[in-house]
Write a structure and sequence with these properties.
The chain has five helices and six strands; from the N terminus they run H-H-E-E-H-E-E-E-H-H-E. With 131 residues, it is of the alpha+beta class. The chain has one domain: 2-Layer Sandwich (Beta Polymerase, domain 2). The longest helix is centred in the middle third of the chain and has 17 residues. The two termini are 19 Å apart.
């Protein structure tokens, strides 16, 4: 992680809160990508996984509730009750919480592979590849 990306994470209160809630709720394989300058939709993309439908649902609903308590209203959200894939749009930050297999299918990290990485906590397998 570059020094600039460490500063982004430390200086962005909203992003720090999102990361904290995801970690507290045991979201897995957290990835944060810097889309500034390469996307007109958002500045930062946050992707995380849950190990079950209920976990995805709990993580995403907890995030939405805590963000609301802290004064951050989403521009929109999808899938919070389904447990397969939840999206919460905070404008400059979009958060996706996936059930693992759904995440592999959509491969957002691959779609945005040219984006600078702010944080990548994905586990590595024995061959050193991600996932």
């Amino acid at each position: 992680m570059s020094e600039n990306h460490v500063r982004v994470l430390q200086n962005n209160k909203k992003l720090s809160l999102i990361k904290s809630v995801l970690e507290e709720k045991k979201a897995e394989d957290l990835v944060i990508l810097d889309l500034r300058g390469i996307s007109s939709v958002t500045d930062i993309l946050v992707v995380a996984s849950g190990h079950s439908d209920r976990h995805v649902q709990a993580v995403s609903e907890s995030l939405a509730q805590e963000m609301k308590r802290q004064g951050y209203q989403p521009l929109g959200s999808e899938g919070l009750k389904d447990g397969r894939w939840a999206l919460i749009d905070y404008g400059d930050i979009i958060v996706h919480v996936f059930y693992h297999e759904i995440r592999l299918h959509y491969d957002l990290e691959g779609v945005w592979r040219d984006a600078p990485v702010i944080l990548d906590e994905r586990k590595r397998n024995d061959e050193g590849d991600k996932y």
